[in-house]
Design brief:
The complex is a heterodimer of chains A (104) and B (399). With 104 residues, chain A is mainly β. Helices cover 12% and strands 52% of the residues of chain A. Classes of the chains: A mainly beta (104), B alpha+beta (399). The interface between A and B is medium-sized, with 15 and 19 residues.
């Protein structure tokens, strides 16, 4: 399993602006996924993946799932991927997950 | 997760096959409209299998039209569908309701009386007394006032020290503690003697009041005065004796015998292996024989197996299945060695002697001897020697 992180396409934007909200969250030790509305990913080995706070599915195939979140697109590749459960708050993907990729 | 699956089963769900080009859109719209989907499985050529609740399925039609998907039903699962299947089977439903009703009615009656703890008081007596107060198999259990019943039973049966009555399931449980009656004591201000209750040899006398009439080592017979209540003035024998209330403890050696014939050829039952079974049903209190017919065997052992219909231990019902097993047996004369026969006879004799030994007696020793009788063969005689209190108070001049 390899986790790549695409921080950005242009080097200019490599230094991201730390906004006030994030700062406050860090100082006050508030959970970021609530304050910043960030997705929370929970993985169990390479079998189960639970994504909380997602926005929607972009693509769903047997070997590839793309999920839209506030911080970008999460691409999951693997084999026999099924959606075990899906509600408006979280999604649980089950199968042989090979990789996770984050796109901005 | 098991809980969730169980919940889904109770609510009921359907398995559907969605066909179309915008399956992701279909899922997104579903989730936005708060429809819970699970076990979504992508298949080849634009198909997808998923599970959805009944409520969600009803909201699916506009979504399917919007995303141009075709939805087809594959399976229905869950409790509501099972119920629907039985909707038209009226007899079945009536039967199920009647069954529950029957259980409820039957379990509101007393069907068994369970008596424990009694040794001397016969169970039948307790059952009869309970029946006299209206508690017998077949009475409704809700009206029973156990406190009142306990009081009545205590008044009715004198030998009771304590009685506990509880209604548990369809059983009425009676726990009994028996009372050992105190010996009839003579009132303290009435003069009395202490007399012997049994034959024996005096081991010890402790006199607290009165005059010893016997010495240690004396052989006494039943009824003999052991401690006299009339104290004679030693110096002036002509003065009429002073009457006192004799108190004292007299211990004596007593003997109990038992005998049994030494039989070298005891007759023994041997099972031949043939078994005849008889079945009968007991409904309420009526006995119904299922296989009428007589027992074919001449000599037999009988054993009875009773199977009572019950739920758990306490909820018994008035239905009983009884299997009577008759084992054919031959009477066979068995040959055993002389030594074995003697031992056997001694054991039996000891048991017989032990029956007569009262509760408070302390067994000191026991001996066996074999006596030849002219025409009857050898006998084993067992003598058990005990140490016991044999004194009892008796009013002077009375009884």
């Amino acid at each position: 399993m390899s986790v790549k992180k695409h921080t950005g396409r242009r080097k200019k934007k490599a230094e991201p602006k730390v906004n006030l909200k994030e700062k406050m969250a860090e100082i006050l030790e508030l959970p970021k996924e609530i304050v910043l509305n960030m997705p929370k990913l929970t993985m169990l080995g390479n079998g189960d993946l639970i994504i909380e706070n997602y926005k929607g599915i972009i693509e769903y195939e047997d070997a590839r799932v793309r999920i839209n979140t506030t911080t970008g697109i999460i691409k999951v590749t693997g084999d026999r991927l099924t959606i075990k459960e899906i509600t408006s708050e979280d999604i649980m993907i089950n199968g042989d997950i090979a990789s996770l990729e984050f796109y901005k | 997760m098991l809980f969730l699956r169980l919940w889904n089963y109770m609510r009921g769900y359907v398995i559907i096959l969605v066909e179309g080009y915008f399956l992701e859109k279909f899922i997104n719209i579903c989730t936005h409209r708060q429809i819970f989907l699970w076990d979504v499985k992508r298949q080849k050529n634009c198909k997808m299998m998923l599970k959805i609740s009944i409520k969600g399925f009803k909201m699916l039609r506009p979504i399917a039209r919007k995303t141009r998907c075709r939805v087809s039903l594959v399976g229905k699962r869950g409790f509501p569908f099972v119920m629907y299947r039985y909707k038209n089977r009226k007899t079945f439903v009536v039967g199920a309701v009647a069954f529950i009703f029957m259980i409820f009615i039957l379990s509101s009656y007393i069907w068994a009386v369970d008596i424990s703890g009694n040794k001397k008081i016969s169970s039948q007596l307790i059952v009869d007394k309970l029946a006299a107060y209206g508690v017998r198999p077949g009475t409704i259990k809700y009206g029973i006032d156990t406190n009142k019943l306990v009081n009545n039973m205590m008044l009715e049966i004198n030998e009771l020290a304590w009685i506990g009555i509880t209604v548990k399931g369809t059983k009425i449980k009676v726990e009994v503690a028996e009372r050992t009656n105190p010996p009839e004591l003579v009132k303290k201000d009435i003069p009395c003697d202490i007399i012997a209750t049994k034959d024996g040899v005096i081991k010890s006398i402790i006199t607290k009041e009165g005059q010893e009439a016997v010495k240690v080592g004396d052989t006494i017979t039943r009824g003999q005065i052991l401690i006299s209540g009339s104290v004679v003035n030693a110096k002036k024998p002509e003065v009429p004796p002073r009457l006192v209330h004799a108190i004292g403890l007299v211990k004596a050696r007593t003997w109990y015998e038992g005998s049994c014939a030494v039989d070298q050829r005891p007759i023994e039952k041997q099972r031949t292996g043939k078994i005849q079974n008889k079945y009968s049903l007991v409904l309420f209190s009526k006995n119904i024989n299922l296989l009428p017919g007589r027992v074919k065997f001449e000599n037999y052992d009988r054993s009875e197996i009773r199977k009572r219909l019950s739920v758990g231990e306490d909820l018994v019902f008035p239905f009983e299945f009884v299997i009577d097993k008759y084992y054919e047996s031959n009477l066979v004369e068995k040959e055993i060695s002389y030594e074995e026969a003697r031992q056997h006879a001694a054991d039996n004799a000891y048991k017989e002697a032990l029956k007569n030994v009262p509760e408070g007696a302390e067994i000191v020793k026991s001996s066996v001897e074999y006596v030849e009788k002219d025409d009857e063969g050898t006998y084993a005689n067992v003598v058990i020697e005990c140490l016991e209190n044999i004194g009892i108070q008796q009013q002077i001049g009375g009884k």
